[in-house]
Each structure stands twice: as structure tokens, then as C-alpha cells.
Amino acid sequence: MSLSLPAAERRAWIRERLDPLSRAPPDPAAIRHAHEFIKGAFQPSNEPAALAAVLVALVERPDGLTVLLTTRPDHMRSHAGQIAFPGGRADPGESPAETALREAEEEIGLPRDQVTLAGLGTPYATGGGYLIVPVVGFVPPDLPLRPNPGEVADIFETPLEFLMDPANHVEHQIQAQTGETIVTLAMPWEDRFIWGATAQMLRLLHERLFGPAP
Asked: Are the CB atoms for 68 and 155 separated by under 8 Å?
């Protein structure tokens, strides 16, 4: 598996499969939409998309790459308790990389000078009216991260190899606001349940690295 390459070769292999950091704004033809991953009732937002970015931080551990993820606090007004990448809405004039690095520093105390940027993933339009650009970067292990309690309840890592295995991509049923059942993508790992936009962006990362999953 290409993820098992030596670190320098693995970095190069991943970079080759991402868009350059200079590609902004996102190419409209490249945007993928939340409704592609959802079966059943789904009402996407009709509002103009707000630009956002997330940091897909790949932690370079001796036994392989892991992905840095957060759990949102239960008190948040939207997506409470869900698993997410560090990230958020772009400030005026920011590039996706600048947004992702700023948000990661604010949310989890990840110093931007500890992130080696690799490139951009597939832009993703949420059902709630955001256009998210995933920014992929490499970070060293065991940094002294600190969650911002207003935005992050927990910080954890999940092996990239697990997340990139289509056998671990499952369907998850939820109740829509209309009362109808919809089916979306999820990636259960240990006692964590990764689903929604985070799971969908990880699936798109799989497509970048390995091609479409069965």
C-alpha cells in the first residue's frame, strides 16, 4: 500500500494527488455535493455558499499516518457532539490554507509553523450552505495541543489507513427534520462515530489517493 512508503516518498505520493495550494477559488466543475452521499429526503440550502476550509492534518507517526480529528461540544448550536476537522468560515481575503491554519490554531492550539502543507483536496458543498476546501498538511506527532473549550470537546487521532479502507465505510441511518429516514456515509472507529461532512470529505480524499471506491 502506498501509505506504507518511506516518509519522504509518501509525502511526494500524496502531494501528487492533490491540487496546488494556489488553486483558488475552487473550480466549479470540481465541486462535490453532500446530496451525492445521501439517500432519501434531502433539502440543500438555496443560500449562496459561504467559503470555508478545514485542515486535514496527517500526523507522521513511526507506525504510519493518522488523521487529527475533533469532537464538537454538546452545547454547540449546530452539529453538537459530531466529529469534525479543525476549520471554519473564511475571513475576507483569506486563502483556504490561511483559513485552515488560523482555525486549527484557534480551535486546537496547533502552531501553523508546525504544519507542512501538501495541497488541496476536493471542494465540498454542504447541505447547509458552505463550500469547504480541505487543506492537507503533515504535522509531527505528540504536539502539546490544547482544545478551545468553546469549540472543541476532544482531540484524537484515527489511522489514515483505516479511514482509507472502503471496507470501513458503512451506511448510517438518521432522521431528517421532516421525520423521514435518510441514509448517509459513516466510518465507525473504536468508540468514535465519524459521519456527515467529515466522513464524506474523507471519502473524497480516498478518491484522490486511490480512485473511486467500489
From this structure: yes
Strand partners, 69: 156
Q: Residue 116's closest CA among 168, 69, 161, 59?
A: 59
Q: Alpha-carbon distance 178 to 172, whole Å? A: 17
Residues 51-76: tens digit of each pLDDT: 999 999 999 999 999 999 999 875 65
Summarised one tens digit per residue, pLDDT across range 102-137 is 999 999 999 999 999 999 999 999 988 899 999 999
**Coil, helix or strand at residue 187:** strand
How much is the pTM? 0.93
For CA atoms 199, 72, 54, 128, give the dihedral sign: positive
Residue 162: in which H helix or E strand, if any? Answer: helix 160-163
Helix (H) or strand (E) run with residue 9 in it:
helix 7-16
Q: Give all domains of the chain, ordered by start, each with its CATH number.
A: 2-27+44-164+195-206 (3.90.79.10)
CA 146 to chain CA centroid, nearest Å: 19
CA distance 121 to 200: 12
Cα 130 to Cα 32, 37, 102: the distances in Å are: 12, 16, 18
Query: How is 41-106 classified by DSSP, letter by letter?
Result: ------SPPEEEEEEEEEEEETTEEEEEEEE--TT-SSSTT-EE-SEEEPPTT--HHHHHHHHHHH
